Amino acid sequence: MLRSFLMLGLLLSPQALAQKSDVPKARHVVLFLVDDLGWQDTSVPHHTEKTPLNERYRTPHAERLAEEGLVLRHGYASSPVCTPTRTAIHSGQSPARSHITYWTLYADRDQTTPWARKDASRLVAPAWDVNGLDQSDPTLARLFSDAGFRTVHAGKAHLGAIGSSGADPLNLGFDVNIAGHGPGGPGSYYGQHDFRANGRRGKPGKSVWDVPGLEAYHQKDVYLTEAIVEETCGAVRQAAKDGKRLFLSFAPYAVHAPIMPNKKYLEHYPDLDPKEAAYATMVETVDHALGALLATLEDEGMLKDTLFVYTSDNGGLSAHGRGGEQHVHNAPLRSGKGSAYEGGVRVPWIVRWPGVVAKGTTSDVPVISHDLYPSLLAAAGVSTPKDHVLDGVDLTPFWQGGDLDREHPLVWHMPHFWGVHGPGIQPYSALRQGSLKLLFFQGDGRIELYDVAQDPGETQDLAPERPADARRLAQLLAAELLRRKAQAPRIKGGGQPLGVMAALNEMQR
Ligand code: CA
Q1: pLDDT tens, residue by residue, 177-212
Q2: For labeling, which of 46, 271, 299, 411 is most exposed (least CB within 10 Å)?
Q3: What's the gap in Å between 145 CA and the centre of ligand 1?
Q4: Which residues lie across from 364 on neighbouring strands?
Q5: For helices 467-483 and 500-507, what crossing angle results, to 10°?
Q6: Cα 213 to ligand 1 centre (Å)
Q7: What are phi and psi of 358, to 5 degrees?
Q8: Are 385 and 138 in contact (CB under 8 A)?
Q9: How far is the centre of ligand 1, averaged over its atoms, from the C-alpha of 313 (Å)?
């Protein structure tokens, strides 16, 4: 008898028992995924101190989330560009495994081809999954839908290419689709333009970038983000009326290019460069949408039972199209969207879950977008399919105050040239373990090592002075890429895969 008590004690500590029974399941789950929102693009400090960029942006509703939840200051996107992060969230698989390593547009067409021609390096990019997610994939929405949730997608989808099944969120398990389709940017943010690209140029005619399904707002003085959230709040109220549990994927097209001001907020930014002022109004508009959504959930009595996650799909745009000096829009992080450096992948992450996540807390434990798949499902008590291999880990024990045990390091893999030049905007693989981050630039075989906890700006390459750490992490990266069956880029002419260990050996010779 004593022995069985001891055994039980070993298996489940009293704390674990208490935790297991006391933790409520979230009745509703909301993923608020802003597009291209940089790590510094809110008034919520994600750095160790408040920065001038935090002072610039007006996001009181994001501040409310932070006051009522957990700010993950080392939260990452799965990729420095759109589709790979989005598909990683909805599949739980890192881009290295899914082979969705670049952004998608047309089915069966390699979108990287025109950019690859501009890549002067010795690299030949590998084949990748140019179609994105497919209707047969066990997506988050499919699993939530099968578990009886009302599944709503609102805004930018960009989960599958035009002409493939994944272009339409309704094929990926969503019951409701508000304005989502294959392309990853809006033709225009203005209702007066019918949200059409040609409307923005003052011309008639359609293009693939035209936002679908918001005809009621055409020719009206309404900003795209406002139209999307108005429709979304209607869908939330309908779910409440129908007594349904809700899984909402709210993904405004903002703050992705084209950078177009919401003119009613421009007066808040009189001293900014006009482009930067326009960008700031887009950030502010997204925050108003967040406020409207929170208010609706609260009115319907749902917010108290909702797990709410706020994050972005990649770092803030900084290479082109922004005002002022380039590559500094995510300062103190280096570079921005498309880059291997922290500015490309470190993004805002806030988690609000009443009664479970402690209020007003911060953490520097690294997390990554594809962790959301097992985490959102676990939080809602929905099981993951047994035969579906995951790279993400269930964060719910950590959100409840426990430790985060991660068997494998965070890994990034984008063996493609993004098409513009800037720091770290090169085909690359990388990993983070502890506070160390190893980067392998495949084109020129360059390896760099940073302590991103001490040096978030990645100013001091530690690879020369810490060769043993560089070797250990390079070996780990090679093993992780192999384990995930990542596609290897090749060297022009030679056709040989370019491996991280060969590059390291060359460097340490
Ligand atoms: Ca994006």
Answers
A1: 999 999 999 999 999 999 999 999 999 999 999 999
A2: 271
A3: 26
A4: none
A5: 160
A6: 21
A7: -65, 140
A8: yes
A9: 5
Query: Phi first, then psi: what are they for 342, rounded to 5°?
Result: -55, -35
Give me ligand 1 centre to Cα 290, in Å: 18
Q: How far is the CA of 188 from the centre of ligand 1 (A)?
A: 16
DSSP H stretches of helix in 157-273: 197-200, 224-241
Q: Give the model's pLDDT for residue 11.
A: 41
- How far away, in angstroms, is 378 Cα from ligand 1 center? 26
Residue type at 97 in one-letter notation: R
Q: What's the token pair of residue 19?
A: 């935790």
Maximum Cα interatomic distance, the chain, rounded to a whole number of Å: 82
Q: Round the CA-based radius of gyration of the chain to a whole number and report it.
A: 22
What does the pLDDT look like over 104-133, one tens digit per residue?
999 999 887 766 666 667 788 889 999 999
Q: What is the pLDDT of residues 447-503, one digit of tens each?
A: 999 999 999 999 999 999 999 999 999 999 999 999 999 998 888 777 677 789 999
Which alpha helices (DSSP H) does 48-192 contain, by range? 52-56, 60-67, 82-91, 95-98, 113-116, 140-146
Determine the Cα–Cα distance for residues 359 and 6; give it in Å rounded to an integer: 35
CA 311–ligand 1 middle distance (angstroms): 11
User: Which sign does the torsion angle of CA 156, 161, 164, 166 carry?
Assistant: negative
Cβ atoms of residues 77 and 35 within 8 Å: no
Chain centroid to CA 464: how far?
32
